[in-house]
Amino acid sequence: MTKTILIATDYSLESLNILKKVLKEKEAAEDQNQYNIFLTSGYDSGDSIRDLLFSTKTSVFNKIRPAEFCDALGIISNKYPHLVNKIICDIFTGSFQRTFNQYVKAENIEEAYYSPSIKSRGNGKFDLIPYIRKCKELKSHEITVEVREKLPERGRLAEIFVEV
After folding, report:
1. Nearest Cα to 158, choosing from 75, 81, 89?
2. Which of 22-26, 115-119, 131-135 has the weakest average pLDDT?
3. If we measure between CA atoms, which residue out of 39, 50, 49, 58 comes closest to residue 120?
4. Other CB atoms within 10 A of residue 80 CB
5. What is the C-alpha radius of gyration for the chain, rounded to an integer number of angstroms?
6. CA atoms of 125 and 93, how far apart (whole Å)
7. Contact at 8 Å (CB) between 134 and 97?
8. d(Cα 89, Cα 126) in Å, to the nearest integer?
9. Which H helix or E strand runs over 76?
10. Is pLDDT of 154 > 90?
11. Hey, how many other C-beta atoms are within 10 angstroms of the C-beta on 121?
């Protein structure tokens, strides 16, 4: 059976620790389901008509998602092929709770995972955690992710191999 989950991210390598932890727990529980995983960040597209007309998801991702994130995502996906059906990077551009609820319903998302230590800020990003907490259709889970300040691999692809 395929289920859909949402993971709130800021497209940093630290935020992939949430995905690693979720997949590790599902593997330890010998979960037989496969998952469509939405890695979603809030994104304020602004009020400019020009930006609204000519911005695409690709141009937004080029601005907010580093290449190391995509490489690390491939590594994690290859580590858990029995759990991952597909991984979709997405942005939520709404500003109302009902818009988020509709997004969850349209994408058939059943569970959501987030970490309060991952803060989506800068480059137009905003935090999805308040929307996830208020959404009644979602089973939300808070994941504790330790963000180490002194990590020699910080910001590099090797950071993904650090145990969480």
Report:
1. 75
2. 115-119
3. 39
4. 17
5. 16
6. 9
7. yes
8. 15
9. helix 67-79
10. no
11. 10
Q: How many Cα neighbours within 13 Å face the side chain of 85?
A: 12
At 140 the three-state DSSP class reads strand
Are 157 and 68 in contact, with CB atoms under 8 Å apart?
A: yes
Other beta carbons within 10 Å of 151: 14
pLDDT, tens digit (0-9, with 9 covering 90-100), for 104-130: 999 999 999 999 888 777 778 899 999
Quote the CA–CA distance of 94 and 89 in Å, as a whole number.
16
pLDDT at res. 164: 58
pLDDT tens sequence across 70-100: 999 999 999 999 999 999 999 999 989 999 9
Q: Torsion over CA of 68, 69, 72 and 78, rounded to 10 degrees?
A: -130
Kindly state the tokens that stand for 125: 């990003």
Q: In the numeric block, which tokens belong to residue 29?
A: 């529980």
CB distance 6 to 111 below 8 Å:
yes
Is-contact 94 103, C-beta < 8 A?
Answer: yes
Distance CA 130, CA 81 (A): 31
